[in-house]
Fold:
Amino acid sequence: MSLNRYRLRHLVKLKHSGAIKAHKLLQSPDRLLGLILLGNNFVNNFAASLATVIAIKLYADEESVIAIAAGILTIVMLICSEVTPKTLAAIKPELLAFPAAWIYTPLLKIFYPVVWFVNIFVRLLLRIVGVDVNKSSQDSLNKDELKSIITEAESLMPARYQKML
Structure:
């Protein structure tokens, strides 16, 4: 989601296969988010259940072991599946986004009915709280935003192009 949309479009024009898949997924951000969160919740709940079962099997007599297992699992999941991947994605979005697009595309086909069902409820809830679900913010620029981009990029351009700007 933190991909530079202009660079992404450029890579799509160059026929970069990962960029093409990522661009297509980003055309429906509600579906992509639904898929990611569905998988994330499934894995988190499965890991918690598995840790509980293992703790009960190994230490059936001590109830505090379940709490300790939950605490350890929380720290491991926070570091390994939340903070680290999200930080990496923020720093190097293409490194994760393009390979992930190859995985997300078939997964979205498989889990589309579930994602669709979840998104129906999300849209309903958003309507209830007064959010227009049909309005979406596009990557279009207004005049002031374009001026800011040009000003920021000016130092990267050769002097002859700077004069034109």
About this structure: Helices lie at 5-13, 17-26, 29-58, 64-91, 93-128, 143-153, 159-164.
